[in-house]
Amino acid sequence: MKKFIWTKDYSVDVEMIDEQHRHFLDIVNKIADFxxxxxxxxxxxxxxxxxxxxxxxxxxxxxxELFDKLDYPDAVPHVEAHNQFREMANGYISRIxxxxxxxxxxxxxxxxxxxxxxxxxxxxxxxKYSAFFNEHGVK
Length: 139
Prior knowledge:
Blueprint: H1 15-36, H2 42-70, H3 75-97, H4 103-124, H5 130-135
């Protein structure tokens, strides 16, 4: 599986958020490494996906705290998108725990979903707050 590559195009011009996005992508790429190594240990995948979920929840919470603090006008639809990701992440964690799952297929599904969701979310939703955050002193 190809890894997801961070480029300047994904920058939202907020250093802390960019760093969190890069770290999130690094965790998703651990799933790609898991796939590429032909590993099939369910516990290893569970640990990586759990790490991804925990970090994603932390990161999404960071953005949401800034939305509240700055009274970001597009917060509601943005938080709805975050909540959809949270639901999917929790669903993947639940599925990994089940015995009837094809770990190889599930790991590919998780990596594709999480990596594509993050990059698209940055370009479509997060880029919208860049100027607003910068104008309010968040850089």
